[in-house]
Amino acid sequence: QTNSGILYPKVSSTRELLSLDGLWRFSLVQYNDSNWTAYSLIKASKTDNDVDVELMPVPASYNDISTNPKVRDHVGNVTYERNFIVPGTWEGKRVWLRFGSVCYSAVVYVNGEPVLSHEIGHLPFGGEISSFLNFDEENNITVFVNNILTNTTVPQGDLAELVSGRVKQEYPFDFFNYAGIDRPVFLYTTPSTYIDDITLNTTIDGTTGIVNFQVAVEGNSSYTSRITIIDQEGRGVATNEKTLNGKIAIPDVNLWWPYLMHDNPGYQYKFRVELLDDSSKVIDKYDQLFGVRELSWDNTTFKINGKNIYIRGFGRHEDSDIRGKGLDLPLVIRDYNLIKWIGANCYRTSHYPYAEEIMDLADSEGIMIIDEVPAVDTNYFSDGLLENHKTSLTELVRRDKNRPSVIMWSAANEPSTAQPSASDYYKDVITHAKSLDQTRPVTVVNNVEAEDDYSGEFLDILSMNRYDAWYDHGGDFDIVLPKIVAGAQAWHERHNKPVLVTEYGADTLEGYHSLPAFIWSEEYQNEYMSAYFQAFDKLRKEGWFIGEMIWNFADFKTSQTYMRVGGNKKGLFTRQRQPKASAHFMRKRYWTLANLL
Ligand code: GCB
């Protein structure tokens, strides 16, 4: 249902909200129950949780909650189930069910009837379920969650049958393939005529902010509308009572600025929409936050509100002990405290869209986001994959289009862009991204050399991942400066576009010291970073180099391989969010850069 809106559920004078977060009954479904959407068949099939408590918290990934490797390594379907009561006062309203994300796909039943299905993790979905509900009584919700990745899923994966007969999920990316209902679940109401979607774009004219708006309404089209823009002090600063599509001017506007580029970063207004009936009674009301800012880019620069952006940041993961990728608010706030402490102004949502609650903080704290779809390590291009890939972009843009923090779309991470077939494929993907949004640049994060690539001509900004002196040339820090500088120059010279380093990093075991520096020690990570800093300082003088992002913000869990000791350890912070020596070192650089620019 990608042609309708996916506004975040909020209480207003016309809308109510109930959370379905909490403990759900959980069971594994045997892999060979192939007809997995057959509700009765799966209900009847035997479950296999052994010693575990058959309850699962929502939101959370299910994999690391259990003591049982069968849960952690499960392939195929699981079921989540719970009962809930819908207040009788909700009868006659539209009642909606909304999931922030289910990894990887879901089929949802309410009182035994299929009501929703969705494929692609990390993206919200929902729909109206009014006609399936019992009001003032118990209702049952059962969600079948499937984690299988194939050649046409985003991201791709493969099923392998081991000699033992067990089926195993294999995937080309290194982060653990967590699954489950990993973001909040809401029930909410709207009136029968309701605000379905709001799209806002802003430009600046001197000291005036211009808000271009489009409001989509479903239901009775004879209602009129009132739009009010409200500032952070709660004052109405502009109104429009005529139309659902138009422009509003905000005089003496407060712009949205990134952290450490302005003394009041992350300034947001409310865009209030009210639908009114003939007697001016408010039928529906929704407040959408937004910021006023203007992005522009050319062959050498990327600007916000007319000022050059220099990105100081990292790639990250949604990842922590026990919860996996499950939304956890203490962790979210801890992470933003660390981001501000270290002086970063940006991160990439590597390698999938992050929770809306996480994105809200980027908007309010002024942290810029490179917003990435789940297309990581794409190896085989096909029409089926292309369709899903485009859908992931459609759903991401629909969700995040109003966020001032989102400054760029990333259409993929490290795809095989050295194959000639990548040319048609990425032309299609990028054309699609540009048809959805012309106000933000689009990138693909590449790890091939400029001369081997077939994607760069379609992109606005060139992003490169480099691991010189890590995956090859261990300890040879002297090769970093010449190789990074030459690599970036080759990208710029081939396409005449701004260049950004989106990854470089070295695995580091906290507390392991070695003088002189030896691979995996804290000293090694610092010397490795120093070598890259020298290259970046040289590139900054070229005039087209727009930023540096280290891999990774924090250590994270991976699949089991000898390459990873307890996971990927390239974090500046441990998985528990404590600093390594590198975090202190990076803090000096990022604050120095922030003060220079
Ligand atoms: C990469 C990938 C990232 C990995 C990283 C690494 O190039 O984009 O997902 O985690 O390298 O540490 O190998």
TrEMBL record:
SUPFAM superfamilies: (Trans)glycosidases, beta-Galactosidase/glucuronidase domain, Galactose-binding domain-like
Enzyme Commission number, as recorded: 3.2.1.31
Annotated Glycosyl hydrolases family 2 sugar binding domain residues: 19-191
Record comment: activity regulation: Inhibited by L-aspartic acid.
Glycoside hydrolase family 2 catalytic domain residues: 299-594
Residues covered by the Glycoside hydrolase family 2 immunoglobulin-like beta-sandwich domain: 193-293
GO MF: beta-glucuronidase activity; carbohydrate binding
Subunit structure: Homotetramer.
Protein name per the record: Beta-glucuronidase
